[in-house]
């Protein structure tokens, strides 16, 4: 199982959107996918049309080891796609993780027992620097960083890269690789990118090049109502007939394949 998380330290950056479409595309290609909602706001759980029943285990109970990990995993309405859901009670896990001393390793440890059951695990992270975001990054082989094409987005990018770097410096065994930075809500008018998007994406390239030698800024997710419509209707972008809009998701899936050298099944 390869574990990939979507991380960006601000709200509205496209984290949940990216997890949803990447997980659904991998599942549609025939891979078995475990999606994990690690944000107490539980948008991913909602986007997947899943309702947490009272007293049924969620990521909270899995992290606290109150249940076996497999008992926190549910089928979704989509083939090959499974979910460890969350609800707002997940926030209470922060103290538990902080108190354990090795909180950054907790999620990775809990996933070991189910690693043989899934090809990919795709995790949605919360928008702040917290014990939860640390354990999500600690569990990841690959990191996808969505960044809104705005000033707020650039600040989020810098905070996120700083956090990843701190983790690398603290722990040499940390193996999470940045798969790419994905500009989110890139605005175009007709055939032209707006000057605002243009300059923000240029800044993303400059910031990223200060940390990495390769160009990690990937094809952008365009500003489009189609994404919201697809989310609300439970459809993939391909099912909506939006092949062009799906291109950045395809590129991400290829990056995820590059983690294990595996190729497209379909
Ligand atoms: N391509 C898009 N263009 C405009 N808005 C989008 C697009 N894709 C998703 N959205 C909307 O943007 C909002 C923020 O995205 P989300 O993925 O929830 O960000 P985060 O998880 O980082 O907070 C959501 O309400 C979502 O419906
Ligand atoms: Mg979110």
Automatic annotation (TrEMBL):
<dbReference type="InterPro" id="IPR050678">
    <property type="entry name" value="DNA_Partitioning_ATPase"/>
</dbReference>
<dbReference type="Pfam" id="PF13614">
    <property type="entry name" value="AAA_31"/>
</dbReference>
<dbReference type="InterPro" id="IPR027417">
    <property type="entry name" value="P-loop_NTPase"/>
</dbReference>
<dbReference type="InterPro" id="IPR025669">
    <property type="entry name" value="AAA_dom"/>
</dbReference>
<protein>
    <submittedName>
        <fullName>ATPase involved in chromosome partitioning</fullName>
    </submittedName>
</protein>
<keyword id="KW-0614">Plasmid</keyword>
<feature type="domain" description="AAA">
    <location>
        <begin position="2"/>
        <end position="167"/>
    </location>
</feature>
């Amino acid at each position: 199982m390869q574990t990939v998380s979507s991380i960006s330290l601000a709200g509205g950056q496209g984290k949940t959107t990216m997890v949803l479409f990447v997980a659904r595309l991998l599942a549609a290609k025939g891979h078995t996918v475990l999606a994990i909602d690690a944000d107490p706001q539980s948008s991913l759980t909602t986007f997947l049309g899943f309702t947490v029943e009272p007293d049924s285990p969620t990521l909270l109970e899995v992290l606290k080891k109150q249940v076996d990990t497999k008992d926190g995993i549910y089928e979704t309405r989509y083939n090959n796609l499974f979910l460890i859901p969350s609800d707002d009670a997940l926030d209470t896990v922060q103290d538990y993780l902080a108190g354990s001393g090795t909180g950054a390793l907790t999620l990775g440890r809990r996933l070991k027992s189910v690693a043989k059951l899934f090809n990919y695990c795709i995790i949605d992270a919360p928008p702040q620097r917290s014990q939860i975001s640390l354990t999500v990054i600690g569990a990841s082989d690959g990191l996808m960083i969505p960044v809104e094409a705005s000033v707020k987005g650039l600040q989020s990018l810098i905070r996120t890269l700083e956090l990843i770097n701190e983790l690398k410096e603290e722990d040499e065994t940390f193996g999470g690789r940045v798969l790419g930075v994905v500009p989110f809500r890139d605005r175009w008018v007709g055939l032209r990118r707006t000057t605002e998007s243009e300059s923000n994406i240029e800044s993303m390239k400059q910031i990223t090049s200060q940390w990495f030698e390769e160009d990690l800024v990937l094809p952008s997710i365009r500003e489009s109502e189609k994404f919201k419509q697809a989310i609300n209707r439970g459809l993939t972008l391909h099912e909506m007939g939006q092949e062009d809009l799906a291109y950045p998701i395809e590129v991400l899936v290829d990056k995820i394949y590059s983690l294990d050298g595996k190729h497209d099944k379909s």
